[in-house]
Each structure stands twice: as C-alpha cells, then as structure tokens.
Design goal:
Layout: H1 7-30, H2 32-39, H3 43-51, H4 57-73, H5 75-94, H6 99-126, H7 133-158, H8 171-182, H9 188-192, H10 194-214, H11 221-233, H12 238-241, H13 249-282, H14 288-311, H15 319-340, H16 345-360, H17 363-374, H18 380-406, H19 413-433
Length: 443
C-alpha cells in the first residue's frame, strides 16, 4: 500500500474538483452586480444566492450526501456522475432569464461542489505514496488557488465598462456574442451580463474535461479493502458503522480538533472569499478596479505559495511549525490593517501579500491532509462530508451576522477585524497543541 503507481496523474485529475469549487464561488461573486442589474435583483435575492451557493449551504448539502455515497458505493461512483450535475447547474446559470433559474443553477452547482470535495480529498490520500501524501493534497489546493486566479483575470478581460471605468480588452467579443443571441436592440444590462455567462461557460468546459478524466480513474484500493473486510467479517455497513464516529472517544476528539482549526479559520476565509473586494472598496476607499487587482495579485501569491511553500515542504518538515508560520502570518496581516489603518494603501498591499502567503499554507490545506489521515477508510469520506456540512452551514449563518457587524459602509471594520484575529488565534493554538504525528505513516 505504500507505493501506488500513477498517484500524481490521478491527483491532477481529481484536483480539477477543487478548481471548479473555488472557480464557482468566485465566478458567482464576480458577476453578482451584472445579474442584479439584468434581473433587477434585491439585496435579499443576493443574500439567498450566497446562502445556497458553492460557498455555503449548497456545498454543505452536497458534502454530506456525497460523503455517504462515496463510502457506500465507492469514490469512483462520485467521479462517474458528479461532474454531469455540475455541468447541469452551470448550464442553467449560463441560460438564466429569471431569478428562480439563477437560484436553481447556483444550488445545483453548489451541491455538486460539495459532493466532490470529501471524495476528492479522500481519494487523493488513499492513492498517494506515504512520502507524497502531503504533496498531492498540496497540488489539489494548488488547483483551488488557480481557479479564482483564472476567473478573476478572465473577469477583468471580459468586464463591461461601468461608472466611467474602461471595459476589459475582450469586452468587444462579449458584445459580438451577445448580438448573435439577442440581436442588435438588446439592452445594455442584457449585453453586460454575457460577461458572466461566458465565465460560467469556461467552467462548463473544464467540468467536461474533468468528467472525462475522472470517470476513467480506478477505484480506491483502500475503499475496496475496507468493503471486503466488512463483507468477510460481517461488519455493519457505512450507515450503521458511522454511528461510532460520534461514540468512539478517539473519533470525537478528532472531530473537536478538526472543528477547532477548520471552523474558526473558515469563518474568516468565507468572509474574505465573498466580501474582500467589498471591504477594500467601502472601508479601504479603493475603486472596484483597484480592489479586483489586489484580489487577483493575492490569488497569484496563493497559487505560488501553495506549490512551493506547502506541497514541496509538508512531507519533509515539521508540520507543527509549518502550520504555525502559515496561520501566524495571517494574524500579523490583520494586525497591520487594524493598527496601520485600512485606508492606508501600503497597509492594504501588505495585507494582500501576507494574506496570500497565509492562503498558500492555509488551515484548509492541513485540514484536507489531516482529516483524510485520521478517520478509518470505511467512513473516511462520510466523516469529511459531515465536517464540511457543519463548516459551510455555520459559515453561511456567520455571513449573515458579519454584514451587520461590519455595517453598510464599513463603520464596524475594526470590531470585525478583532473578531477575525480572535478566530485565527483559536485555530493557531488548537493546531499547534494537537498537531497529529501522521507524517511518514501509512493510512
């Protein structure tokens, strides 16, 4: 079991799930204003889109369903059908003409994203050599960073000009495509929203490629052996044996540990994923173009650090201190915004760089690695699905609370920043004290 051929190839194929996860979140957020103008959406409508999207409840529902299915019927079952569901959701968004269609598209896409995440992290770990397990998880996180980077760059190139700002260099092609479908007399809002339609179209293409690659993967040997052991020993199936997850003391401690790092960190990360540009503009006083530029730079930093700082090091160095550096630098970043000032451009640039470094060695990368190592194969994916469900659901509720703390114009920024620091500090302390000693060991 220590040497499994083709682990890097299968990791790349499965990692496209992470690309599509983060890509769906950023594509949805970047096009919200365009859809709002086109469909006449209210702020309440936008809140519902966020709540049921790949960022929150949609992914939460998909994760708990997909996790159980991956343990009961196999990891390959998820990869055979899940991307078809993703393509359906994206296609609905691409051809949306009213709010119910848009809401349905966001929901289906989110469910697909959630179903794929626990299966992908589990499959990568189970098909990795002992010395490359962290590297392969890091590559999957690398794909998670590449998605937003590409979507943000594509969004800037296709963006319509608004409020006197210059349109993206490729917006002329957007107008030509819109004219083919809508005719020359289409409204400005209908033409502009084609930028978002085309971005989701790019996700449809990547999902199709991912489906063709993933459906050809072999089943996980660990899962096959676990199912064979259950059959030979007449042990209970995944649904029945899953009860031990909440009754076994070791499992309960594992859940508390993982929740202590991932839930607290994700409260911060989910806010930054959906509201970062908004904070830069309202509290920081930047223009929309400046806010998007800083975000794009940040994601490029995340991509580079994920590969060179996490994937290349996590199997070779003390994971406790790598975790400390990644999480600690995020705390430093927030302190700079508080004490130097969010309206200081140098502080914003410094925060962007440091938060990008944090993102490259983020708690999520360690969570993806440790959660796949600390649960038995017979309910490994289901356990991750439950954890993902709890985290994304709680983050959705936290998002509703955050907007009231922050305020419409950023008047509550300092209070919000101190809460972010507190949450990251909890993640830092819990992770440092209870870092699992799993490096170099078989699953």
């Amino acid at each position: 079991m220590e040497h499994k051929s083709g682990s890097l190839k299968s990791t790349i194929a499965v990692s496209l799930t992470n690309y599509l996860d983060a890509g769906a979140i950023v594509a949805g957020a970047s096009g919200l204003t365009l859809w709002q103008n086109y469909l006449g959406l209210t702020e309440g409508n936008l809140g519902w889109l966020n709540a049921i999207s790949a960022n929150c409840f949609g992914a939460a529902i998909g994760a708990i369903i997909g996790g159980f299915l991956a343990d009961k019927y196999g990891r390959k079952t998820i990869y055979t059908y899940n991307m078809l569901i993703y393509m359906l959701g994206v296609a609905i968004i691409m051809f949306t003409v009213n709010f119910p269609m848009l809401l349905l598209g966001f929901l289906i896409t989110g469910i697909s994203v959630g179903a794929g995440v626990p299966a992908s992290w589990t499959y990568i770990s189970e098909n990795s050599e002992v010395g490359n397990r962290g590297r392969n998880i890091g590559i999957s996180q690398f794909a998670w960073g590449v998605g937003p980077a590409i979507i943000l760059i594509l969004g800037m190139l296709l963006a319509p000009g608004q409020s006197g700002s210059t349109a993206g260099v490729l917006f002329g092609y957007v107008q030509q495509v819109a004219a083919l479908f809508l005719g020359a007399d289409a409204t400005m809002e209908a033409v502009n929203v084609f930028s978002s339609r085309l971005i989701f179209g790019s996700l449809f293409i990547v999902a199709f490629i991912a489906w063709n690659l993933q459906r050809k993967l072999n089943e996980s040997k660990d899962w096959e052996e676990a199912k064979l052991a259950q059959a030979n020993e007449k042990r209970p199936g995944v649904f029945a044996s899953f009860g031990s997850l909440f009754t076994n003391k070791i499992n309960v401690r594992t859940i508390i540990f993982l929740a202590g790092i991932y839930l607290t960190w994700n409260f911060v990360a989910s806010v930054m994923g959906f509201f970062q540009q908004h904070m830069y503009e309202t509290a920081g006083g930047l223009s929309n173009g400046q806010a998007n530029m800083l975000s794009a730079v940040q994601w490029l930093i995340i991509v580079a650090v994920t590969y060179f700082g996490f994937a290349m090091l996590v199997d070779k160095v003390n994971q406790r201190w790598l975790y400390f550096f990644g999480t600690g630098i995020g705390i430093v970043a927030w302190f700079i915004l508080v004490f130097v000032g969010v309206k200081n451009l140098t502080a914003l640039w410094t925060f962007t760089i440091l938060w990008g470094i944090q993102g490259g060695m983020s708690v999520q990368a360690f969570y993806a690695l440790w959660s796949s190592e600390l649960f038995p194969a017979r309910y490994r994916a289901a356990a991750q699905g439950v954890m993902f469900f709890i985290v994304r659901s709680a983050s959705a509720l936290w998002g509703f609370a955050f907007v009231h703390i922050y305020g419409a114009h950023g008047e509550g920024f300092n209070l919000a920043a101190y809460l972010m620091i507190g949450l990251l500090f909890i993640a830092l302390v819990v992770g440092m004290i209870w870092t699992p000693k799993t490096r170099g060991k078989t699953l």
